[in-house]
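hey so i finaly got around to running the thing on cystathionine gamma-lyase from Trichocladium antarcticum. pasting the sequence first so u can double check i didnt mess up the copy paste, my clipboard has been acting weird all day
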Amino acid sequence: MTASTDHPITTPPRAPSPVQGFGTLAVHAGSPHDPATGAVIEAISLSTTFAQTAVGKPIGEYEYSRSSNPNRHNFETAVAALENAKYALAFSSGSATTAVILQSLAAGSHVISVSDVYGGTHRYFTQVAKAHGVKVTFTPEIEVDIREHITEATKLVWIESPSNPTLRLVDIRAVVTQAHKHGIMVVVDNTFLSPYVQNPLDHGADIVVHSVTKYINGHSDVVMGVAAFNSDELHARLAFLQNAIGAVPSAFDSWLAHRGAKTLHLRAREATTNATAVAHALEASEHVIAVNYPGLDSHPHRAIALKQHRNGMGGGMLSFRIRGGHAAAERFCRLTKIFTLAESLGGVESLVELPSSMTHAGIPKDQREAVGVFDDLVRISCGVEDAEDLKKDVLQALELAVKPANGVDGTKSA
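ok and heres what it spat out for the 3d tokens, dont ask me to read them lol
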């Protein structure tokens, strides 16, 4: 049974371009000069509580830091500007952001999600959401078969574009058009691209979420999440849960993330330049089975990237299948010299990891492989180092990993 169409959601047209460019907004949005000192960079407000002039009458807009804090407020203002949104709410992690959005749904609600999602999102959907009565259906081809999965209980569609770690793209407007006919909201996880490369709200999405830990902060020193949206009703509901659940970031983390966001456009451009160079080098290598990168013309969804991404950019993330199976993939991850073997992504430093054994290890093998997460799949996050150095590092590691000498780590035994 399909959901009722009595209460469709009006899909907004593409938002008008901001009056100021992205770089200008990144530097100045949510960054007022201090009226007392003239400081151009905000102070860190560590106070947990704020004085009141009378009972129930705070001096300013802040009462208690779980509810609101100057640093968090400024960061939220900045993210809202960068995502062309009316509101943004920050949380203690990307996973906390996901949890709050799912907890905003009534018991008995149904969610449709793309299959290849971040392992933490998959864990929440399969092991936590059902505990409060929310059922999730996964589908690998969400634009094609979304209507087949819609029921009277369907309240939300969850998209990652690009997906983690196979870099599949979703036509956001196509999914939104179908979902909104049935009164169903659409959430897009935009972590892999950042607000600089893609703005899902411009394509009709209702909520855009980020692990701020990644590109928005960009320096691998903050764990944080954020959601941005335009609906007044959504703001009231999610802000209530933000305060009630209390999964909020500290003032210092908010300050760090805001500082990181000021250079987002510079870092995202450089990461894209580097990932494009590395992707071309991998694609040309005899040691590689396939490369997943939206910036390549060979990517099956390249047309979507040209439509949805700023200047058709591919972003800083890519993955590839290496010849030699899981053993070769493990060797590759140990043999890079500039790329660090570690989880996470989106920082100034380049990282490499093996999803099947690391970020996505909690997903059953058959489910992983059904969406392309094979044991020989390597995921790369390109940082802002010199592109030529990153290319050389990848190629030398490939050579040693696929054609090891006498030692198991690709080095000759003594």
